[in-house]
């Protein structure tokens, strides 16, 4: 319920903050202190309708504006974002908890997509074929869809919406972003930036809320497409519901990313990268590393190297202090921390050896923060739920295996297919891995890489429902629909006359 002492984070509709009248709110915490710092409005039916009406109005203006003018506004947005991104990073750290440099990193990766979008005229060009038959030309146009919905998770409040909205807007659509209710302020900040950049009112809208807001977007006939990122059960629900309602949909789900380490790999490189990818952002990344598959005899040596590195990690308030910035911040909520702890308990009960235990970590001066220390588990059974399910915390698991083939089989038998990596000096093995693995994004001596903006992001299996990945050329295809036009300008002197036969070349 709303609390008189904390501010209520509103919606952004028709180019302005829009206070909620729903009477429903959810608390927003600073996860490093555990304090409730705001309440976020949870939209009702009238507010969903207002956001949709605003986006429809925005679309009418924006989709008719020349590409040159649209491009200038996107360039301006990019320039403002680049100049003011430290403000945005502070908001991300306050509500999400990740360390400031990591918040800056997420903004930089989002900005890449804005930069790609500035080149949109080239990416939404149609094609032209002259004289396909005598005097007949065929060409294609790519037009925007209309109002598009973007529903995002808590773990990247800037980057994930930016996987979609720069491209959607560049292509001439208007958008409604439904941020995670756990860290909603970044989306409002970006709305204000668009306004400053000169985007017409109604083209970028923020609808805060929970399932009711999501269902409102899924059911609104005016919303033409849904781009969703979040957990797998919700992704599947979004995919099925949006498709049933006749919408275009891409729904990215959860992950359980494995790194396969062959015995010839450089174990210092492997240990560095496993620690970076396993514990960065406290493991709350869909491209976090969860499992190291160590082909024996390397496991003992690798575990020692990882342990040494974990001992150097500092956990604390992501905003930092006089002593500098910690390496990782807290988890998003107390409930999520309890869930992560439960998975470590399950791993232990199932015979896993807890090599480093972060369950009881306390951060001095931040006793009420949602911290969880880096945890390392050895010898985990691949039957354990702690192995098969996504944990989404700073928990790295080592599974000892005997061969390359066993590693490929384990990875391919998992439910998810988001990211994976192989560490080896054997080019032939790496090539075989990239060919045989059933995963959407692969690193070779690079841990679980997020592709650059001009390649697309997306996994396989339970990590992506739908057939369009995020951003890159696939992003432009998702946010446009094509028309093919066959045209003939008759020379009155050479009129073809009546012919009821089926037209042929
Ligand atoms: P989540 O599924 O709980 O929430 C995502 C969004 O769905 C939020 O906006 C939320 O308000 C909404 N939502 C939640 N429950 C809903 C319901 N019952 N009906 C309708 N909407 C609902 O996910 P999260 O906890 O915010 O994010 C973490 C998850 O996201 C992890 O599983 C992670 O792997 C995944 N993720 C995946 C990718 C990817 O690219 N594949 C990227 C980032 C995060």
TrEMBL record:
Keywords: NAD, Oxidoreductase. GO terms for molecular function: methylmalonate-semialdehyde dehydrogenase (acylating, NAD) activity. InterPro entries: Ald_DH/histidinol_DH, Ald_DH_C, Ald_DH_CS_CYS, Ald_DH_N, Aldehyde_DH_dom, MeMal-semiAld_DH. Its EC number is 1.2.1.27. Residues 21-485 form the Aldehyde dehydrogenase domain. GO terms for biological process: L-valine catabolic process; thymine catabolic process. It is an enzyme of class 1 (oxidoreductase). Residues 1-29 are annotated as: Disordered. PANTHER family: MALONATE-SEMIALDEHYDE DEHYDROGENASE (PTHR43866). This is methylmalonate-semialdehyde dehydrogenase (CoA acylating). The lineage of its organism: Bacteria, Bacillati, Actinomycetota, Actinomycetes, Micrococcales.
């Amino acid at each position: 319920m709303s609390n008189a002492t904390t501010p209520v984070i509103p919606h952004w509709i028709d180019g302005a903050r829009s206070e909620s009248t729903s009477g429903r709110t959810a608390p927003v915490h600073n996860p490093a202190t555990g304090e409730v710092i705001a309440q976020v409005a949870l939209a009702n039916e009238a507010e969903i309708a207002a956001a949709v009406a605003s986006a429809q109005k925005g679309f009418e203006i924006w989709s008719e504006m020349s590409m040159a003018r649209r491009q200038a506004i996107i360039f301006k947005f990019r320039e403002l974002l680049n100049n003011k991104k430290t403000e945005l990073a502070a908001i991300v750290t306050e509500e999400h908890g990740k360390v400031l440099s990591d918040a800056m990193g997420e903004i930089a990766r989002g900005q890449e997509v804005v930069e790609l979008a500035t080149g949109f005229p080239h990416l939404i060009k149609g094609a032209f074929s002259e004289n396909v038959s005598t005097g007949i030309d065929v060409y294609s146009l790519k037009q925007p869809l209309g109002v598009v919905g973007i529903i995002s998770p808590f773990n990247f409040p800037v980057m994930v919406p930016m996987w979609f909205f720069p491209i959607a807007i560049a292509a001439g659509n208007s958008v409604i972003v439904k941020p995670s209710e756990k860290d909603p302020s970044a989306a409002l900040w970006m709305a204000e930036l668009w306004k400053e950049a000169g985007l017409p009112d109604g083209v970028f809208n923020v609808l805060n809320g929970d399932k009711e807001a999501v269902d409102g977007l899924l059911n609104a006939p005016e919303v033409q497409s849904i781009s969703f990122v979040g957990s797998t059960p919700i992704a599947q629900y979004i995919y099925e519901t949006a498709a049933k309602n006749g919408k275009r949909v891409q729904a990215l789900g959860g992950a359980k990313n494995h790194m396969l380490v062959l015995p010839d790999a450089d174990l210092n490189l492997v240990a560095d990268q496993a620690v970076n990818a396993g514990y960065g952002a406290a493991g709350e990344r869909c491209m976090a590393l969860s499992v190291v598959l160590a082909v024996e005899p390397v496991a003992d040596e690798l575990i020692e190297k990882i342990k040494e590195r974990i001992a150097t990690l500092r956990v604390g308030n992501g905003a930092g202090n006089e002593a500098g910035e910690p390496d990782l911040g807290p988890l998003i909520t107390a409930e999520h921390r309890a869930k992560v702890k439960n998975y470590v308990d399950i791993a232990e009960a199932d015979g896993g050896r807890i090599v480093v235990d972060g369950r009881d970590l306390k951060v001095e001066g931040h006793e009420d923060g949602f911290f969880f220390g880096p945890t390392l588990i050895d010898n985990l059974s691949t039957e354990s739920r702690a192995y098969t399910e996504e944990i989404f915390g700073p928990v790295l698991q080592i599974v000892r295996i005997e061969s390359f083939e066993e590693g490929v089989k384990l990875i391919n038998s998992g439910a998810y297919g988001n990211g994976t990596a192989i560490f080896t000096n054997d080019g032939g093995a790496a090539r075989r891995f990239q060919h045989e693995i059933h995963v959407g994004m692969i690193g070779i001596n690079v841990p679980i890489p997020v592709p650059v903006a001009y390649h697309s992001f997306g996994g396989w299996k339970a990590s992506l429902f739908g057939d369009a990945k995020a951003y890159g050329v696939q992003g432009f295809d998702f946010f446009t629909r094509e028309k093919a036009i066959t045209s003939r300008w008759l020379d009155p002197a050479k009129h073809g006359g009546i012919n009821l036969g089926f037209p042929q070349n």
